[in-house]
Amino acid sequence: MATRRIAEILKHGQPDETATIKGWVRTKRELKNFAFSEINDGSSLAGLQVVLDADLPNYDTILKQLATGAAVEVTGTLVESPGKGQKIELKANSVTVYGEADPETYPLQKKRHSFEFLRTISHLRSRTNTLGAVFRVRNACANAIHQFFQERHFLWIHSPIITASDCEGAGELFTVTNLNLKDVPKTESGEVDYTQDFFGKPAYLTVSGQLQAEVMALAFQNVYTFGPTFRAENSNTSRHLAEFWMVEPEMAFCDLEGDQNLAEEFLKYIFKYVLDNCPEDMEFFNKWVDKTLLAKAENIINSEFERVTYTEAVALLEKAKKKFEFPVSWGIDLQSEHERYLAEELFHKPAIITNYPKEIKAFYMRLDDDEKTVAAMDVIAPGIGEIIGGSQREERLDILEKRIAEANIIADDLWWYLDLRRYGSVPHAGFGLGFERLVQFMTGMTNIRDVIPFPRTPLNADF
Ligand code: 4AD
Ligand code: MG
Which of 18, 80, 98, 449 has the most CB atoms less than 10 A away? Predict the structure, then answer.
């Protein structure tokens, strides 16, 4: 018989139907002539209650094997559940235990474990309620992202993971090499001789697919990337990973305003999609992780994002009664405490901050007419801070060349990027959404390490 998903049985299962399920034992309760066991197959937060009667063949052996964590297949008949908490349960006719789990050593016994502890067993933690819900919501977010862009005819393009350019110019690159590190070839002047390396020059893991997305946008108008990016940022915070996923739309014939409009529409769409498609998981987070989560989600869907320039934001921060760790003045890069004050305490909703000083932003952002600021935008969210960073790109060759020189970037390496400004240049804009920060925002999870299955952070690449 075909296996049924527990999520489907809980929704549509009717008494007297026969059903086979496969999953892992969460709990077992033995009574006098029968036993209950809750089985979870990952399809939903709730498991299915299985009833085992003492007249089941091999009852005693099976009961012993049905410890928390064991993998089982159960075939039986659905019956209305007399107990509270569930409508339907499965009366077992046959049980197959695939893999047992020793109760003495299986680390996930029925109690609440700290997230710190669960990170040390990342190979098992997805079997818990919270991480299970996180990864279902993560999947729904990914699906919503593709659906949003595909409905709007954006082409999903695949930017390279290995690249020779530092898009953000922040020097947070992981080098990709196959040189023998015990005997590195050197040039006459004592530098590493990359001509002998695999690519014949220095190569890195990408920090952003943007530059390549720009190439593709200038052929297809609207494109997006969705893939892993890497940053050797030595910051051990609850919002930074060394390997994270980024979504980067890029639009030709688009300016900063169009970019902001897309970012706002995009976030609202994803929230609505997840509320519609993962109601149980979202209610779980609202109950156990952040009691204001659903209200916040509704607020995001229904409110207009605040839009202020950097200059206006600085003025608001200077007026704030609050004492910040990093003092505020025009020209500083906004710190997380500033972003969070604006989003959480002042606006009570996401905000888009635009037109930052050129000195604190990347070389590719379009210079504003005042020549002091650039057409940048950051979307900041309550509880998270920066969730999206984007800009209108500099499409004018002469100005871009000047900005590259100012940033001390070697223009020769970017000849192809400059060519886009020589041949059919056009105003264009895009942004990058940090996918894990989105999942944090969506679920209320406070640590970014708990929204990606296998987090990579300084000194940690286990599993
Ligand atoms: O603001 P960032 O650095 O922007 C870019 O990389 C642009 N090239 C994007 C573009 O315009 N196409 O990064 C974009 C987003 C941030 O807003 C943040 O959400 C996330 O990526 N991010 C990180 N997420 C987790 N860990 C890190 N170390 C992150 N660094 C950035
Ligand atoms: Mg940024």
Answer: 449
**What's the predicted TM-score (pTM) here?**
0.96
Kindly report the protein residue whose alpha carbon is nearest to atom 28 of ligand 1: 240
Q: Read off the pLDDT of each residue in 284-293 and give the average, rounded to a whole number.
A: 97
Residues with Cβ within 8 Å of 439's Cβ and at least 6 positions away in sequence, in order, are 134, 137, 138, 141, 445, 451, 452
Best residue among 154, 167, 246 to mutate for probing ligand 1, ranked by most atoms within 8 Å of CB:
246
Quick one: how far is CA 405 from the chain centroid? 34
At position 38, the amino acid (one-letter code) is E
Q: Residue 208: is its pLDDT beyond 80?
A: yes
Residue 300 burial class via C-beta count within 10 angstroms: exposed 0-12, middle 13-18, buried 19 and up: buried
Name the nearest CA neighbour of 28 among 39, 19, 41: 39
- Which strand ranges, in their side-by-side order, compose the sheet holding 385-392? 155-156, 222-230, 243-252, 428-434, 385-392, 373-381, 351-357, 306-309
- Residue 129 to residue 132: CA distance in whole angstroms: 5
Return the ligand number nearest the Cα of 262. 1
Number of Cβ atoms within 10 Å of the Cβ of 264: 18
Is 353 strand, coil or helix? Answer: strand
Round to whole Å and give the CA distance between 273 and 386: 22
Q: What is the DSSP code (8-state) at residue 323?
A: P
DSSP H helical ranges for 84-204: 115-119, 129-151
**From the alpha carbon of 386, which atom of ligand 1 is closest?**
17
> Is 379 within 8 Å of 387 (Cβ atoms)?
yes
- Residue that has been written with the tokens 């206006």 in this structure: 312
How far is 336 from 233, CA to CA, in rounded Å? 16
Q: Which residues surround ligand 2, an ion (CB under 5 A)?
A: 389
Give, for 40, the enclosing helix (H) or strand (E): strand 34-40
User: Which of 168, 437, 441 most suits a substitution to test ligand 1, by most atoms within 8 Å of the C-beta?
Assistant: 437
Ligand closest to Cα of 385 equals 1
Q: Are 337 and 344 in contact (CB under 8 A)?
A: no
**pLDDT tens-place string over residues 84-97:** 778 999 999 999 99
Tokens of 376: 């940048």
DSSP β-bridge partners for residue 250: 223, 430
